[in-house]
Amino acid sequence: MKTIGAFDAKTHLSELLEKVADGESFVITKRGKPVASLSPVASTARHGPKDEIDLFRKQFAKSLGRVSRREFAEFKQSGRP
Questions:
Q1: Exposure winner among 19, 44, 51, 74, fewest CB in 10 A?
Q2: pTM of the model
């Protein structure tokens, strides 16, 4: 869980909410002491496979790099589609 000061949380609230929607959590501090937490709400709705795939893509898309043409050609030659 990441820590953020109250002033920064107020200043960047919309960005924090986007990150929380993607599954991240934050502890908000005031003068260095934890005073609140900001985390996703547990959903009671059932998710289907498509929802799970979309969630996976959102969470990990930033950490996955692009595949170069050379890597793609190597995958193709090795029999990977």
A1: 44
A2: 0.52
Model pLDDT for residues 40-62, shown as the tens digit of each residue? 887 656 678 888 888 777 777 76
Using alpha carbons only, how large is the chain's radius of gyration in Å?
19
CATH number at residue 59: 3.40.1620.10
In the chain, the number of structural domains is 1
The amino acid occupying position 24 is E
Give me the sign of the Cα torsion angle 65, 68, 71, 73.
positive
Rounded to whole angstroms, the Cα distance separating 28 from 37 reads 6
Q: Where are the beta strands (DSSP E) in the chain?
A: 2-5, 26-30, 33-38
Angle formed at CA 35 by CA 29 and CA 40, multiple of 5 degrees: 90
